[in-house]
From TrEMBL, chains A, B, C, D:
The keyword Oxidoreductase applies. Keywords: NAD, Oxidoreductase. Residues 3-125 form the Gfo/Idh/MocA-like oxidoreductase N-terminal domain. The lineage of its organism: Bacteria, Pseudomonadati, Pseudomonadota, Alphaproteobacteria, Rhodobacterales. The keyword NAD applies. Homotetramer. It catalyses: myo-inositol + NAD(+) = scyllo-inosose + NADH + H(+). InterPro entries: Gfo-Idh-MocA_inositol_DH (IPR050424), Gfo/Idh/MocA-like_OxRdtase_C (IPR004104), Gfo/Idh/MocA-like_OxRdtase_N (IPR000683), MI/DCI_dehydrogenase (IPR023794), NAD(P)-bd_dom_sf (IPR036291). Its EC number is 1.1.1.18. Belongs to the Gfo/Idh/MocA family. Residues 138-318 form the Gfo/Idh/MocA-like oxidoreductase C-terminal domain. It comes from Paracoccus aerius. Involved in the oxidation of myo-inositol (MI) to 2-keto-myo-inositol (2KMI or 2-inosose). This is Inositol 2-dehydrogenase.
Length: 338, 338, 338, 338
């Protein structure tokens, strides 16, 4: 069976996902498109999905009998509305980050999905599908004893002037917030932020770098350096220290050369290159579950927990140096852990 | 357009390719199957390709109007016959190694394809699609100056008793023979084989390890260690030395741990794990070209050149220590290099 | 000129230093020995320094006209007394860690040396002489821009029952406390300690691991993991993040093998193996300066600053999670930086 | 006891060794110097060894009652004469490479030392004292099973116009020739040289690179790439393949940085930096044995075997591609292997 996919929001990521569905992955076909900028959707139809219908708006697209499942790739502020509509229609829905722009909004989605009774929503936390993290999780689960500490870094060469201190949480750390919950099978109980002196390359509205310390329910301490003006490259580091040993996220594959008196491997500079392969795996997983009328991968609950934790991290930035407690309701049975 | 694929030979690799076409890749669908053991083809239909027809023989499958393109995955001795039939039918054809069991047979395929006038055949040299080799080629082509030497190793943990000294060429070195022609954009002019003392783990009919030295038309010297009882793992090494520097094939991605007083990365032990991802890329390339009624990737000429070189290497084994000249006709225009 | 050396305290480290002076290094000779256990000193005379005189006590040894310079290797509580006596005698003095068991005691030594007017004391912080740290400092000073963060780890496979939580500072972190001041050419202004859940292998009187966060006057944040029951090996890690890039302390030299499906390098398990070479360099530096009647390397002031910082770190352990300010008087001109 | 050392030849290496003896190592003192250029010896006396006597010639120096042991660091053509004189005088003698400029000359030294009856000569093959090779030998002897193959490279960034094809053997490969005999505890039975096309940076009298294949008595095959215009750095590589696994010579210690989108370690460019530490260990070993009136380390026999093998390698260059047999008399009992 081919899953008929409607894409809401055909900007960079929506267009790229449409290409994936139609040209790379197995089992899906783009049958519907919509965008606030209709010309954008028309262009995707012309270039990638000639058989698709362009809809005036996301709600009509969701309602269409030619759409089995939905990709929500529109502006963040519209995610909640479309995901709720997809749940109401009983259709599987892949939603790019964030699930909603507030914890309350994410909670409304959780409540709606719980009321529906089966999973319909997958949130676009693609790191869980990255080959390196998947291999790391296997080692963490089986070879190094129970985790006690995680040392991580999220480094970006540069950011635009519009990027502010809280965005280091909402746009950047958000990936670590989700992936470490998954990696450790654990939840957060507190957050603390430490600010070294800011680097010379940052600007007035951004304190950079910063170190976020998250403590989990099991007592694991995770310190993550966020440094978005690190200059030298896009670099994601993660070391897990367990009772018996240490495991480390691998560097991306690259060719080692000996040139100009230097043994060298290139470092990526664009985040898109780092996780591009995981988008394929992520969406293939969505297609597979959607063919069964359900969803797998990161849940609405994960999206909600990411929102709750992000809010606490921003509060911790403001409370510079003080720990902020992280609280959340009980996990619904629908999202019971494996 | 979905390319309708017929698979001849549904043993391990044929079955796996059928799964790829139907469950992983985009743009193809298995519509026909055949195998000397009909039950094998029936099983693939049942498990993977319910819409496929099982044919009594490969010739009927090739002739079927429901088949746009063919995968030849049968016993090596039958490859030539099926590939020639596919060419006669004007249908794109992916042929697993070897293209034919003799250089003469491979030459007949080359001649038939040249007579046909456009490319129809892709040979299953999957290493050209391996992420590591692809990245290495890019660096060799652009960063280290013209290549002068290649140091390589092809190590296998163990081989069965049936594996003999010439098989180290035909079944093992065959991959290096092809991939180095592609990597260096060059052809071979001589082969020499040096035998160290054989290892304790080998058996009477296999001298192991051996070192094959190939010299190219441009004067590059390639030494490849073949060691199929190396015991410790499946390990493919390749270092290219150029005018300006050195580049090295990367190790497969793995997780580094610190455990038991050892900093360690696992080494693969099964060759299938090493190149599994490249099979996907290889067949996707085939599907893409087949949709246009042609073929890309490794050519019949490449298959023929591999056969010619293999024969010279086996002669060099017998002439222990002496160099054997490698000769071949001019390259047909159909196979002109990029 | 050969510097005539008297060794006070001939236990493990004193005996080893005597061997260095007489058998490895250039320019020194052991002429005097003393130990509370006279038999220990006699044994060193018999085995290593046949020309040495055994003294009844350290004070007599210091006063001897046959002694040009002193090594203080006795029990920590006696260091202050002997170092003060050496200063009073105007003789160069190498003192093993700690310079004194209290910050006040260390300050008395600083004051005595300042009153003397020239340097006479070198404190045994051998990491400053480690080839890896020396190379790291060169890179930190010249290649990665001004430092902003340091991520470090000090891991030990196991500790005895007698090792308590504060000893993780006084006996373990003390090395990082000194070496980071030197590496960064900076001083500390606050300390904070975070405790993850303790590991299963620790005992009642030791919370292990712990993470100590030191902030420097220049705003650099240093987080050091101390994990003395890490089980897998003795492992010293240090990564410095600067404005332009990152530099990392090298792993100790070891042989990489491919064995048993594992690419592996041994990890040390005994701290003595890690820094053994730096003891030679350290004492050679002492001999060279002592021949000129003075001292170089880590100063009394460095010893005092280490004591002040250690006290703050222990207070930070007790104030779990709260930052403790670190204060100290102005640096005397005698100890002016580079 | 302090060994009184006379140095014959006070050029770069002789001067450096004099510095080592007087300023770094334990147990020796420079008491005599000579050089064909007397001013050179006077300068070393002035700068490094004020207590030394400058002799008119090496023979007088050897005869002096103030000289216990001799360092022969003069021009290669004079080595044989001075070493024979030292043996005649019954004094331990350290001789820089080559022991003699012909195999016959080296054999005369062997015969003289055998006639003397105890060891007096150490040849300056410093690689045997390199920390990396020492660690490699330990692993080769104990962990990877019996060696079967060695893959090695000796790369130099550039050489002067005066450096010719045979010098790649006599001045460059000579180190591998010795160190692999020691590493494998084996002797050579044949040599073959393969020439790839020469690199663009070489000159008329030098074919570069070249690959020398040595076969040992035990059947181990060693291929060594010599590439003295490799441009990118001074790089010594060595991989030993044994019955059970593979071991590799470590890279020299260096600091890994992340800078400018590159993960990088510096590569040395000057051979002196690569083995500087091993000179200290080598000469300390000489001093220790000389204090006992004998010699240890590389023997006259090793120097002779290096000469015999070098001659065969040069013959193999001339016989391009053909194997040249290597023959030598039985090993005298004085040089029996450990």
């Amino acid at each position: 069976m081919t899953v008929r996919i409607g894409v809401i929001g055909t900007g960079a990521i929506g267009r790229d996902h449409a290409r994936r569905i139609n040209q790379v992955l197995s089992g899906g076909s783009i049958t519907a498109l919509s965008d606030v900028n209709r010309a954008s959707a028309e262009a995707v139809r012309a270039d990638i999905a000639p058989d698709a219908t362009v809809f005036d708006n996301g709600q009509d697209l969701i309602a269409s009998p030619d759409v089995d499942a939905i990709l929500v790739c529109s502006w963040g502020a519209t995610h909640e509305e479309y995901v709720l509509a997809a749940i109401a229609a009983g259709k599987p829905c892949f939603c790019e980050k964030p699930l909603a722009t507030t914890a309350e909004g994410a909670k409304r989605i959780v409540d709606a999905e719980v009321a529906h009774g089966t999973r319909l929503v997958q949130v676009g936390f693609m790191r869980r599908y990255d080959e390196g993290y998947v291999a790391l999780k296997k080692v963490v689960d089986g070879q190094i004893g129970a985790p006690i500490m995680v040392h991580a870094a999220h480094r970006n060469p540069t950011v635009p002037e519009a990027y502010t201190t809280p965005m280091a949480i909402h746009d950047t750390l958000i990936h670590e917030i989700d992936v470490f919950r998954w990696l450790l099978d654990d939840d957060y109980v507190s957050a603390r932020v430490t600010f070294p002196r800011s680097c010379a390359r940052t600007h007035a509205k951004l304190r950079d770098p910063q170190i976020v310390t998250l403590v989990t329910a099991k007592g694991t301490v995770i310190d993550t350096e966020i440094f978005v003006n690190c200059h030298y490259g896009y670099d994601i580091q993660c070391e897990v220290v367990g009772e018996d040993g240490v495991a480390r996220l691998p560097e991306p594959m690259s060719i080692q050369t000996r040139l100009n008196a230097t043994l060298q491997n290139p470092i990526l500079t664009d985040w898109k290159d780092r996780f591009v392969a995981s988008y394929d795996v992520e969406l293939q997983d969505f297609l597979k579950a959607a063919a069964q009328g359900t969803a797998s991968g990161p849940t609405s609950w994960d999206g909600y927990m990411a929102a709750v934790t992000s809010d606490a991290c921003v509060a911790a930035q403001e409370a510079e140096g003080d720990a902020i407690a992280i609280t959340y309701p009980d996990r619904p049975a629908l999202y019971a852990q494996g």
